[in-house]
Amino acid sequence: MYPLATLANARRCMRATKIGDYQVEEGVEVMCDTWTLHYDKKIWGEDAEEFKPERWENGEDHFYKGGFIPFGLGPRQCVGMRLAYMEEKLLLSHILRKYDFVPGPKTQTPLKLVGMRTTQPESVWMHLKNRD
């Protein structure tokens, strides 16, 4: 929902080329705005701004290739992607076995984001509640 480095997917055009109706000259920096891409209603539908993890339940890419690129795409994709995914699954599985995340009085809804090149929440306050 909140890509951290929204403008980090930049490349220098190595030779003049045409992409759709656009002519890109050699040496021009081409940048992918990940934030806009991840909220594009043409790709995700009218509910693009809603947190809906069920979009990935069936394990198939039911959206355009390149419609979700939190780690970039192609040969210059982030080398830490697999490690990040493994760490996140391991950590969440350990936490969720014992606790539920619940909002508290300081929880901001929606999150207030700060930053330009990299984005982060101003603060995140959640409580852990023991599972019965």
UniProtKB/TrEMBL annotation:
Q: Which cofactor does it need?
A: heme
Task: Kindly list the GO CC terms recorded for this protein.
Answer: membrane
Q: Which InterPro entries match?
A: Cyt_P450, Cyt_P450_CS, Cyt_P450_E_grp-I, Cyt_P450_sf, Cytochrome_P450_Monooxygen
Q: Name one molecular function that GO assigns to this entry.
A: monooxygenase activity
Q: Where does heme bind?
A: C78
Entry's localization field: Membrane
Keywords tagged on the record: Heme, Iron, Membrane, Metal-binding, Monooxygenase, Oxidoreductase, Transmembrane, Transmembrane helix
Q: Which domain of life is it from?
A: Eukaryota
Q: Which family does it belong to?
A: Belongs to the cytochrome P450 family.
- Record's protein name: Cytochrome P450
